[in-house]
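Entry:
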Amino acid sequence: MQSRLTSRLASALGALALVPALAGPAFAAAPDKGDTTFMFLSTVLVLLMTIPGLALFYGGLVRTKNMASVLMQVFAITCLIAIVWVTYGYSMAFTSGGSLNSYVGGFSKLFLSGVTGESLGGTFSNDVSMYEYAFIAFQMTFACITPALIVGAFAERIKFSALLIFSVLWVTLVYFPIAHMVWYWAGPDAVGAAAKAVAEATADKKAEAQAALDAVLADAGLIFSWGAIDFAGGTVVHINAGIAGLVGAIMVGKRVGYGREHMAPHSLTMTMIGAALLWVGWFGFNCGSNLEANGVSFVAMMNTFTATAAAGLAWMFIEWIVKGKPSLLGLVSGVVAGLVAVTPASGFAAPVPAIFLGLVAGIVCFIFVTSVKGALGYDDSLDVFGIHGVGGIIGALGTAILASPDFGGSGILDYVSKPGSAIVAPYDIMTQLVAQSKAVALTIVWSGTISAVLFLLLKFTIGLRPSTEEEREGLDVAEHGERAYNY
């Protein structure tokens, strides 16, 4: 069992964990300036996804009287979580948590303690470093966008104060632990150094060196230790947010007049602009998750093109067949579904097989949004669960298939067998599918359960919703005393 765990841990390339230079091996060279610039641009692109991308995408989908409130919610969450991230979020996600290390990190880097402009960490290549601040900033944008995604599930009917409190508690109890469980590991240099020590150890020191290697491999989050892979956030971001959104939509309740009043998007123009910005920003999301500018980054880029385009077309054509007309809203919804689905597979899949992942995501998400939601009767205002939750699950499970070398995938790298370098490990689709399924199940249970508790806590303390009169007036005026449009 231990040898199998060791092999799985050493093989997992798809985790985005940093190896701080203060705790890990020294690097032979300073970070490459090209890689550093690449990470700077990727970070800015992910910020663009959120503000203004997500804000405009969501804002255009609500009614005019709630446009400013949605923009405010997304923008405020971005600011708030950025501060939470540097205060304790980074430490909880990407440091060792001691006895709780399987589930969450510790507080050794509270307020970014010990991090300077010269602090280095690892990438996915042996002896290739990056500035720790680059990694902190990049991952901060992920932490900011995830709770902002949840907003769409109960848009037009949530109190601003309750949303801010929920966001802080949710990232603390859900996002940071899931990010740690999926993405935290010792890194290739620590693994390679320990494996090299085993290879070079004399007979009397072999057991001691092996124990040291086992300890390095065991320094990982629970989901990572299962062998699950998530290149850029299928579980951490999309399933996590989608499940929380579904729980929130149910527990907050339906919008006043839902099912009886006209609630069409007030500006498809704004929604299209937001969707376009999401797609552009998503290249930072997926390509930057490689942590260095090399061929894998361009694999992620091609997949972010092909799967997304396929999903948009799939949604458009199936809607055309079912409803008689193709809509702009359907096309951009399919595009987002494709972006979500390809995220966990983006660095592992080949571009042509990724097209099939996009096609499946576009069709299945269409069915959930247009049929399943109505049949079950919940009011997921902007289809957070139908697109992010369902699309994330499709992507996470599909990654097990598309990552296989049999389908042109990259496989998973093994840093132990040949210390100091990485080779492709033997790959079994069913084994990987089991690991992916366990990761999906844990994320659903963890996010769903804790989200429900948080919504209940807020419901019976400060309340979740504004009054019926305030909701009818619109949250722009009722909550913020301003309007998005003044004619």
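The first strand starts at residue 120 and ends at 122.
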